[in-house]
Amino acid sequence: AYDDVANWDDATYVVNGVDRLRSSDGASWFNIGNRAPNGAPTVVALAAGSATGTYYGGYSLVFGTFGEGPVSPFSVGVALANQRIRFSALSTGVTGVTRRRFYVSSHSAPGTVYRLASDAGAGTTFSTPAFTEDDLLDAAEVGLSPFPLCDRICFHAGRLFGSPVADRGKLVLSRAFKPDVYDALDDINDIRDDGGGRISAIVSLSNEILIVLTETACWALYGASPATWKLSRIFEVGMPRGAFRTAVTINGRVYWKSRRHVYSTNGYREGTQIISLPIERTLDTLSLTDASIATWHAIDYRPKNWLMIFVAVGADTAGALNTNDHSDLSSAPLPG
User: Fold this and answer.
1) Is this structure's pTM higher than 0.70?
2) Closest to 331 (Cα-Cα) out of 302, 289, 290
């Protein structure tokens, strides 16, 4: 199957299904949010500060404009008496890390995490400016996990959705507008628990409808936020994984190929239908001599004439993909 890609906020996100999520702004590639710093920083007290009491320190890796990763484990406590904090043993991170962001938990609110106003660039140490508790910033997203390794991804309603390699029947999602962190409590397990089919495609049809195809069914997630979400199984035909199959969105509809036919949906049960019978009749008239032809791939769409063009992909007698033979191109008018 093809590596999956998703676009959001002037960047492209790519997965390889093996070890990482990557992003590009068109000029440089970055490894995104697949890891937090491995260990806790070392913190010691510095003179000439303003904070008093016991503080615990942690930090995160920031990937330029592409977001922030999860926070590291926190250090042991350090007692301050009108002092500052010096962080050391900091990780420089991986390719794409542009700076580190620092967090503390204070004696007056144990377990509550706050962000320091200052970030740091390269280097393995950082000394904070003078601060008091009143200078600390709220950090509501601290303590979340890195977005898990997925081989299917899609941006929808300001969130990154994915199908994890570790459990391809589960749907995971990032926090809003933070594609590199997520909370496992947000996982959607209904698809896996109802039939157990693996997710083969995730497609944003509109800000209010996310289409999820499994090997056995088509699902729709309605609503733009968790408070309004409703998940429904809208059709009993899905899309097999692999075999160069790709779900595509055209004029407010999602098209996909099952094991036998091409289907289309507008996101509702009554608007889901088979649309490939005219195409199949056209293909039946072609001389397809290669017995290993196994699939079609939608390659073009002409809205003025309501044509969708498919190519039959096969192998030559040596078993290599036949990329030069375009004799098997076909097109057919879409119904309606």
Assistant:
1) no
2) 302
